[in-house]
Amino acid sequence: MNSKEQTNTLTNDELYNLYLNSKLQKSIDDIKNGRVMTLEELKKYIDELEEKHATDNTK
How many CB atoms lie within 10 A of CB 16? Predict the structure, then answer.
């Protein structure tokens, strides 16, 4: 591999860092815009999904 190919190739670490940065930026944006949920709200949401799933499976 020549040096030009090396400079145009992203390593797995670089790809991971880009992915992580993207997710962190989205999280910051979500927090700034009020798109958040408390742990208690998340647990309630999961419980409701589990109840709905259990009900749907009994039909």
Answer: 11
